[in-house]
Structure formats: structure tokens, C-alpha cells
Write a structure and sequence with these properties.
CATH topology: Rossmann fold
Number of domains: 1
Order of helices and strands: EHEHEHEHEHEHEHH
CATH architecture: 3-Layer(aba) Sandwich
Number of strands: 7
Number of helices: 8
Structural class: alpha/beta
CATH superfamily: P-loop containing nucleotide triphosphate hydrolases
Strand order of the largest sheet: 3-2-4-1-5-6-7
């Protein structure tokens, strides 16, 4: 089983967009997939509720809830045979909690938008992953995704220069596209839309998916400590 954590304490960076599209991708490719939603805004959970029953199933876990009379480990369990777990983390996570969401993940994906505020937040996020969560660069578990970019703009070039200084791989750059909005409204992933509509966006996902699938096998049995 592989666990993929989408993490950036900065709100609005595109965590849910990444999480839902990854979950849809894996499910559509035949993987038994779970989507774990830790965000109190419950955007991933709402997306699952409108997902058509005719599509490949995704097991949703509303991890943002605290259910009375249920242990946390039981609430966060995934169905037997699950092979892919995608974790949508909340905004404003304190650095001392990073380890709760990352210790058992084979991959940690950090989305960042092309703005100076987001660039600064991404730098802090990477710093805390390396220090507070004690993730070593040689583990090759962290990747950055540039989200909603407009190529050939000054802010995009500024973002790319910054990312190159991190010594962390930039696995994908996703253009600003209405396909993300439309697919979310329909409970779909990009890979499940009509190819003539989504192909330019789908092609941008190939390097990220390849990197994720190159990560190692499971590190542990759960993320029960995340609360």
C-alpha cells in the first residue's frame, strides 16, 4: 500500500485539487483507493458525494470528524486490500504536527501557487518538513508541484527560480484551466473527462504520476496518530 500526503499549510494552494485528481486517477486505473480528508472544509468529502456511482469507487474517510464512541485508529482504518491512500491535509498545520501526516507516507507533494506570498509559504513548508518532520533529502519523498501557472509571466519565472533553489524535485507544472473546476463540480478527475477536452491537462500529470509510482512500499500500517 502506498500513502501519498498532499501538504502545504498555506490555504488555497490546491491541495484538494491534487488529492481528488490523484484519487480519481488511481481508482480509474483499477487500484483500490481511499481518500482521507483531514480538512475541516470537507471539500474532498463533498467531491466524493457528487461522484457518479458509475465510476470507479473511492473509499472516503472523513478524518476531520471526531466521532463519539469510536477510537481514532478505527475511524482512520482503510478497507482491506487498499493499495493507494491519498491524504488531503488541512490548512494551518503547526510544524510540530507535520510528522503525524508524513511519517508513513511514501510521497509528500507540496503544491505552490505563483505568488510571492505562496512562494514564501512554500519555503517555510519545505523547511519544516526537513527539520520538524525530520525528512532527509536523500529519502526522495518530497516533491513540489507548481499549480495554476501561466507560463511566460514574470511571477511564473520568479516561482521557477525559487523552486530551483530548494534542491527538491519539481515534478509538475499545472496550467490554470477550467477543466479542474468543471471536473470537481461533476465528481470527476481529469483522467476521467473526455480526452478531447482534458488532454493538454492530463499530459502535465505524467511526470508526477511516474514519480509517485517509483516510491517505495508502505512505511507502517496507518496514520492513527494524526488527529
Amino acid at each position: 500500500m502506498r500513502r501519498i500526503t498532499i501538504l502545504n499549510p498555506k490555504g488555497g494552494s490546491g491541495k484538494t485539487t491534487l488529492a481528488t485528481n490523484l484519487a480519481a486517477y488511481y481508482a480509474s486505473r483499477g487500484f483500490t483507493t481511499a481518500l482521507m480528508d483531514f480538512d475541516p472544509q470537507a471539500s474532498s468529502s463533498r467531491w466524493l458525494k457528487v461522484r457518479p456511482a458509475t465510476l470507479a469507487p473511492i473509499h472516503g474517510i472523513a478524518a476531520y470528524q471526531n466521532l463519539p464512541g469510536v477510537t481514532r485508529s478505527y475511524q482512520l482504518r482503510v478497507p482491506p486490500g487498499t493499495t493507494r491512500v491519498v491524504i488531503d491535509t488541512p490548512a494551518a498545520i503547526e510544524p510540530h504536527r507535520f510528522d503525524e501526516f508524513t511519517r508513513e507516507a511514501q510521497a509528500i507533494v507540496v503544491p505552490v501557487l505563483p505568488s510571492q506570498i505562496d512562494i514564501h509559504a512554500c519555503a517555510k513548508c519545505i523547511e519544516h518538513l526537513l527539520t520538524s518532520a525530520k525528512i532527509k533529502r536523500r529519502e526522495d519523498r518530497i516533491a513540489v508541484v507548481a499549480n495554476r501557472v501561466r507560463p511566460n509571466t514574470l511571477v511564473f519565472r520568479s516561482l521557477m527560480r525559487f523552486l530551483e533553489t530548494l534542491d527538491i524535485p519539481i515534478m509538475a507544472t499545472f496550467r490554470e484551466s477550467q477543466n479542474y473546476i468543471r471536473s470537481f463540480e461533476l465528481g470527476l478527475g481529469l483522467h476521467e473527462m473526455r480526452a478531447e477536452r482534458s488532454l493538454p491537462d492530463v499530459e502535465q500529470w505524467a511526470p508526477l504520476v511516474a514519480w509517485l509510482e517509483s516510491r517505495g512500499q508502505a512505511i507502517g500500517s496507518g496514520i492513527e496518530a494524526a488527529r
